[in-house]
Design a protein that fits this description.
By secondary structure, the protein is of the alpha+beta class. 32% of the residues lie in helices and 8% in strands. The protein contains two helices and two strands; from the N terminus they run βαβα. Strand 1, helix 1 and strand 2 form a beta-alpha-beta unit. Helix 1 crosses helix 2.
Length: 71
């Protein structure tokens, strides 16, 4: 059901360091929690500006596991 790969390297390596940016979107609480914890960039779909402000406030108020803020 699961597998493990060892001694693997990808060539060419990514030019984004330390990794490509992680983009995440979604309006659900689980999506906002995951974005706040681990995403580099959070997408918000087309909503009225007051709703967008509220979503941004909610995401930024959640705990974050990375040192840089979510964008």
């Amino acid at each position: 059901e699961y597998f493990k790969i060892t001694d693997l390297s990808l060539r060419p390596t990514s030019i984004a360091k330390p990794h490509p940016p992680i983009y995440l979107g979604g309006a659900s609480d689980p999506a906002q929690i995951l974005a706040a914890e681990q995403a580099d960039i959070y997408f918000i779909n087309g909503q009225p500006i007051e709703d967008v402000r509220q979503v941004i406030k909610q995401v930024l108020s959640r705990p974050r596991s990375l040192p840089q803020p979510v964008r």
